[in-house]
TrEMBL record:
Keywords: Membrane, Repeat, TPR repeat, Transmembrane, Transmembrane helix. Signal peptide: none annotated. The keyword Membrane applies. This is Glycosyltransferase RgtA/B/C/D-like domain-containing protein.
Length: 411
């Protein structure tokens, strides 16, 4: 079932996509509703998990649940179809922890296996569970079955020569990569910054000096970094044991990505569970009236950017759907081996619901024939061959929503 060199082994993801494609076709609304339903399920599961972890924490499940529900970091896994696997693995992770805390150890192990079959992020479950076991004062051997299963999973992947990261990502054991990703973890959870800008600065810099120069030229990035590091360092130094444990859980939930060259908002979905719990704990330190005001301001802050992000994703999804529909109609009139030269593709579809990695992947996902799509932004148009179709995308300049002037032509 595993092909040599295949970067993913996610049978549950495959089944999920097949079912959604059967039910909704290429209409993004149906896909997004299912993702939102899974996210809502996760919210209720998180509240149940917090009740089990802190049975005496009155108000903690409710406060933490509100923070999790409103957090702006969740828009990517909800609106980007491919990132739905993050929602699925989070569901199985929470169910595994809940089952363990209810002493249903066999069921907990089953959910762990389902998490591994959903997405590779499931490898964090034994480590997260180990932190919880230490926090509860339970014997370490309780985590042994989980690490045994993890070892078997990794062995199977190794035997099948299946790497653990996609081909468009690279793992690099380097202190700078570690610091970059750890800072992205803290800042991404704490302060909203346009991820496209952050990604350009974080991973587009050629050196440390260049990166610092880019950071200093954007005050919102500087503010984000200072505030996020202060929050976590002050909590780590002056916080309670429970709060320090939560910081440890945040970091352990990010383990698969600490040395990844490149990042994404979806990687913060599982860490945001523990972040929401941490914020809930800190809010409970404040007297009731001040707590209500502070919580209200935080929720308003998270909700404003969450709604703004959601709108951007919905518009990008609509645009990408139009492009796919148009290119699919063109493809039906073409012959095998011909090409579509797509000139001036819109920037705002980067991260849309289907082709996050670029228009060039449309032919692999949606075309029946071997018709290649070549997006052309700034580079020269490639030499045309017989049968090529040229598509030019233009925007209206009348202040209304984007429009397109489609100009098919033959090479």
């Amino acid at each position: 079932m595993l092909s040599p060199g295949e970067p993913f082994f996610r049978p549950i993801q495959v089944g999920y996509f097949i079912l959604n494609r059967y039910l909704f076709g290429l209409h993004p609304l149906g896909w997004n509703i299912v993702s939102l339903a899974i996210h809502t399920l996760n919210l209720f599961l998180i509240i149940e998990l917090i009740k089990l972890l802190y049975p005496k924490g009155k108000g903690l499940p409710f406060l933490s649940g509100l923070i999790f529900a409103a957090h702006f970091i969740h828009t990517e896994p909800i609106f980007w179809t491919s990132a739905a696997t993050t929602l699925l693995v989070a569901t199985f992770l929470i169910l595994s922890l809940i089952s363990y805390l209810k002493n249903s150890h066999i069921l907990s192990l089953i959910f762990f296996v389902l998490a591994l079959l959903s997405k590779e992020d499931g490898v964090i479950i034994p480590f997260v569970l180990l932190v919880i076991i230490i926090h509860q004062g339970s014997p370490f051997r309780a985590a042994l079955p989980y690490f045994t299963l993890l070892g078997l999973y990794l062995l199977i992947r190794l035997i099948c020569k299946s790497p653990f990261h996609p081909v468009h990502y690279q793992i690099q054991i380097h202190p700078l990569i570690f610091i970059k990703n750890l800072t992205f973890l803290f800042s991404g959870l704490t302060v909203w910054v346009d991820y496209r800008l952050l990604r350009t600065i974080w991973y587009g810099a050629s050196s440390v000096g260049h990166m610092l120069s880019l950071i200093s030229s954007h005050l919102e990035i500087v503010f984000s970094l200072i505030l996020s590091w202060l929050l976590f360092l002050i909590t780590l130094i002056f916080g309670t044991r429970k709060e320090r444990i939560l910081i440890l859980l945040i970091i352990f939930s990010f383990l698969p990505f600490l040395f990844l060259v490149g990042s994404g908002e979806r990687f913060l979905y599982i860490p945001s569970i523990w972040f929401s719990l941490l914020i809930g704990m800190l809010l409970l330190r404040i007297p009731p009236f001040g707590r209500m005001i502070t919580a209200g301001c935080l929720l308003l802050y998270f909700a404003i950017f969450s709604i703004g992000n959601s709108y951007r994703w919905i518009m990008a999804g609509r645009t990408s759907g139009e492009i796919i529909g148009f290119l699919a109609r063109i493809e039906k009139k073409m012959e095998e081996g011909e090409r579509i030269i797509f000139i001036n593709p819109p920037e705002d579809i980067d991260g849309a619901w289907v082709f996050r990695n670029g228009l060039e992947f449309i032919d692999e996902l949606y075309f029946a024939k071997k018709v290649e799509v070549i997006p052309v932004k700034s580079r020269p148009i490639p030499p045309l061959k017989k049968g090529d179709r040229i598509i030019i995308w233009e925007r209206r300049n009348d202040g209304n929503k984007s429009n397109q002037n489609r100009c098919p032509g033959r090479g």
